[in-house]
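A further point concerns the way the authors explain their paired sequence and structure data. Nothing conveys this as quickly as seeing an actual entry. An entry of this sort, consisting of the sequence and the corresponding backbone structure tokens, reads as follows:
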Amino acid sequence: MKNLIILCIVFFLGIGNTLQAGEPELKKIFNGKDFKGWQVPENNIWWTINDGILKTSNDPKKTASTLWTTKDYEDFIIQLDFLFGEGTVDSGIFLRAENEQIQIGISGKYERDMTASPYIGSLGDYPVEAKRIKELLKTDDWNTMRVKAKGNKYSVWLNGEHVMDYTSDTAIKKGPIGLQLHGNKVMSIEFRNILCGEFK
């Protein structure tokens, strides 16, 4: 009986470390088999799915591409795993539109890794920089990123650590979520376990 009580305490403490009060339940928005729920670019040669993994890489012309959800989101949390591939990885998660993004990989502007930092198109810059990325980011293994977009406030966690908060003056209320393949690069990146939950 005593052991059962201890196990229950450990179980509930574990849940408390992953779910915060008032946050939505995360559900799969990528089924690992096909592009259901996503807007596939015309003449798609950039995005492939194999064994539950979504991979994107540049074509010979180094053309940019974005994979958008078919659904629009207002206040939400998106969580996914990513793995750096070949070349100079410059990717990210678009939040409701192309002008607001959470960076994954090397910034073309600064030519260094700016993972988990927000790029704001109206500023043409990263207004804040995520903390402790050099310590947390695994360049040769899977990473987990969690992004909360609630109103105009963005928060990011990398591999379980809270690394960034930013309040945007140009956030829009509602729109799709996008995964970016940057143009003019030779690169590839993989994604898996793409989950999302909406605040009520």
